[in-house]
Amino acid sequence: MQLADNLVSIQARMAAACGRVGRDPAGVQLMAVSKGQPPAMVRAAADLGLTLFGENKVQEGKAKVSMSPGRLHWHLIGHLQTNKCRDAVHFFELIQSVDSLHLAEEIDKAAARVGKRMPVLLEVNIAGESSKFGLRPEVLVEEMLKINALKRVEIHGLMTLAPWTPDTEKVRPLFRRLRELKLACEEALGATLPHLSMGMSGDFEVAVEEGATIVRIGTALFGPRGRAGAAGVGMGDPAKEG
Ligand SMILES: *Cc1c(COP(=O)(O)O)cnc(C)c1O
C-alpha cells in the first residue's frame, strides 16, 4: 500500500537525518497533515500507528476530529480567525499557529469560558514574507512575554513555515534562526520550551538536522491533496474557511 511505503520511507529519512547530527530519533515527532484528505485516509494512517495529526482549517478539522478514533492527537496548524477560537479550543489539543497577541487574547478568553488551559506554539514569519502569517522575529521575545502573561494560554514552543525552494540548503539558516529564537525565548522566560515545529514534505530532513521536534508532513505521506478529499466529507469550499 502506497501510504505504508511512504511512511516507511519518511521514517527512514528522519532517522538518517537524526543520525547525521547525533540526535535520538525519539525526539522528533512525525505529524500527519491530513488537510484535503478524507477521514478514511486518517483512519488508514492511524492504523499504521500514526497518532499526531494536523489540520489547517477549523471547519475541515473539526469534522475529521469528530469522525476519527479517540486516541489521536490533533493540532491546528493554519491561520486562525478570532471568531473561530471557541471551536479551535474545543476540537484541538494544541494550536500551532498563534500569530498575534490579539489572537492569543481571544484564545485566552475562549479557554477561560470552558475552564481549560490551551497549549500553543507561536508562529514566526521567519523569512519576513508578506504572503505569510506569523510574528516578526524582531518582536518575538517581547510579544511572547505578553502572551505568556495570559492565564489560559500555555506556550510550548515555536513554529514556522519556510519559503518553498528546490534547494533545501537555502532554508537551513532559517531553521537555525528559529532554534536560536527559541533559545532567546527560553532565556527571557527562565524556562525551557519543548517544541520546534518546522519542516514539511520538501524540507523535513534539513529541519530535523537543525533541531525540529515536530515535522509536519502532508503530500510526502498521503500524496497530492485536492478539493476532492475535502469535498468528500461535505465541507464546502476549503478556500473560504480559516
Ligand atoms: C499543508 C501544510 C503542511 C504540509 O505540507 P506538505 O508540503 O504537504 O508536507 C505543513 N504545515 C502547514 C502549516 C501546512 O499548512
Describe the protein.
The protein has 242 residues and is an alpha/beta fold. It has one domain (2-231): TIM Barrel (Alpha-Beta Barrel). It is built from ten helices and eight strands. The chain has helices spanning 2-21, 39-47, 58-67, 85-91, 101-113, 140-148, 172-189, 204-209, 219-222, 227-231; strands spanning 29-33, 52-55, 73-76, 94-98, 118-123, 153-159, 195-197, 214-217. Strands 7-6-5-4-3-2-1-8 form an eight-stranded parallel β-sheet. α3 links the parallel β2 (52-55) and β3. It is globular, with a radius of gyration of 17 Å. The model is unreliable at 228-242 (pLDDT under 50). It binds pyridoxal-5'-phosphate (PLP). Pyridoxal-5'-phosphate (PLP) binds next to β8 and α9.
Ordered list of secondary-structure elements with their pairings:
Blueprint lengths: L1 H20 L7 E5 L5 H9 L4 E4 L2 H10 L5 E4 L8 H7 L2 E5 L2 H13 L4 E6 L16 H9 L4 E7 L12 H18 L5 E3 L6 H6 L4 E4 L1 H4 L4 H5 L11
Parallel strand pairs: 1-2, 1-8, 2-3, 3-4, 4-5, 5-6, 6-7
The structure holds pyridoxal-5'-phosphate.
Give a concise summary.
This protein is α/β, with parallel strands linked by helices and 242 residues long. Helix content is 42%, strand content 16%.
Feature tags:
disordered C terminus, single chain, 42% helix, 242 residues, globular, eight-stranded parallel beta sheet, TIM Barrel, alpha/beta, binds pyridoxal-5'-phosphate
CATH superfamily: Alanine racemase
The count of strands amounts to: 8
Which cofactors or ions or other ligands sit in this model? pyridoxal-5'-phosphate
Largest sheet: 8 strands, parallel
